[in-house]
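Continuing the batch. This is chain 6 of the set; chains 1 through 5 are on the previous pages. Same settings as before, nothing changed between runs. Recording input and output for traceability.
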Amino acid sequence: MATRRFPRARALDREPYRIWYEALKRAKARGMEVHKDYVEWGDTSIGFDRWWREHGHTVITIVANGVDLVNEATVNDGNYYLFAIPKHLSPRQTRDEAERLMKKLKAEHGQFKLDARWRLTESASPKLASYRAYLHALDCRDALVKKALEEGKSEKDVKPVHVLAALRLYYIKKAERYKFKGDQMPVILTHGDGGHQTDPDKIIVSDHSDPKVATQSINAVREYLKRGEELLQRVASGNFP
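Output for chain 6:
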């Protein structure tokens, strides 16, 4: 695949690839066999932002699927045609003129096709928060398993309720650090009042005075872990999501 240098894209555009990258790192850390084409990604042991600056932007082409006004990320991007549209033209005239010009340009330069290997499916963006939650759940479980092994215990000693408590604590600390910016704790993981509890001591407790809420939260953790494993498997095979 030919490579070229692109101007820095908006962070929002890169976020699906950030999660893809983080999932790939976890797949590799588990010793999973990954697709041979990932060799193009180079060193994936470093942080995503550094990797994107140094290498990622030459491998992955970010192109929007819709038509929009030119911006800093697209003004010098060779994957876009830039049109000058007179403001007095009607929408119909604009469409007809754009179609005529597109046909002319493609006849002269050929049909441009993006490399399909690193394209996102249309369902990727709306589920980013869920994918992040799956990875957080995997990280919490892995940390607990590591601690259990160090204490002479086994992986079986780590129960979903333990992962739930660790995951709740993770979100609380993250919210405190970033002043509640970014992803918040999923409602299904909260305890006792349908998602509005703010007292950390009450959120983290593991006695679960409300059996119904406890069952829902623990089942959610099981689902997160399952989905997380599935995500790593897909990413290892070269697909996202």
